[in-house]
Amino acid sequence: MAKHRNEGNFAWFVAGVTVGIAGAILFAPKSGKETRQQLAEAASKGREFASEQKKQATQFGRELYEKGRDLVEEMKLPGDSANDSAEAEPADSAEA
């Protein structure tokens, strides 16, 4: 649980830094062209960061899915697959 809180705090930190940098760029005594170029570079870095975070989150999700699937397989009792197929296909004893 604490890990999720730390990740949230880190996200707020990154957001704060981004806003601070954007404010510093906007109020810096530079020409419009230079300011636009810096903003474009900052936006590009932000997109790269978001893309990397998405990749990491996707990989983490896949790993959790695999671990969950493995745990379910481990938890199955011997013969569960036979019970599943028996439940899926009722016996034909009623027809005999």
Please tag this protein with its features.
mainly alpha; 96 residues
What does this structure look like?
There is one protein chain. This protein is 82% helix and 0% strand. The protein is rod-shaped. It is an all-alpha fold and 96 residues long. The model has no long low-confidence stretch (mean pLDDT 77). The chain is built from 3 helices and no strands.
Tell me briefly what this model is.
With 96 residues, the chain is mainly alpha-helical. It is built from 3 helices and no strands.
What are the SSEs and their pairings?
Layout: H1 2-27, H2 32-75, H3 80-88
As residue ranges, the low-confidence spans are: none
The value of Rg in angstroms is: 27 Å
What is the overall pLDDT average? 77
Class of secondary structure makeup: mainly alpha
What's the helix-strand series?
HHH
| Helix run count | 3
Strand content: under 5%
Instruction: Please give the alpha-carbon distance between the first and last residues.
Output: 58 Å
| Overall body shape | rod-shaped
Largest sheet: none
What oligomeric assembly is this protein in? single chain
Give the beta-strand count. 0
| Fraction in helix | over 70%
